[in-house]
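Take a specimen:
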Amino acid sequence: MTEPSELPFEQARAELDEVVRRLEDGSTTLEDALALWERGEALHRRCAEILGAAEDRLKALRPDADPASG
């Protein structure tokens, strides 16, 4: 299994969606659910990291933009 830190955004998001689906269907054991939760947390962090970097890039393109406006 690929480490979340190595995944592109789209793949991490798709896997996170699958983790959520499996957790919500309630068909896993407690141990499997805990492992899925941990994987989901790592995938969420990866997605947030990539989105944060994208936001920083956009801000760098518009240094005069008002930070309070979004």
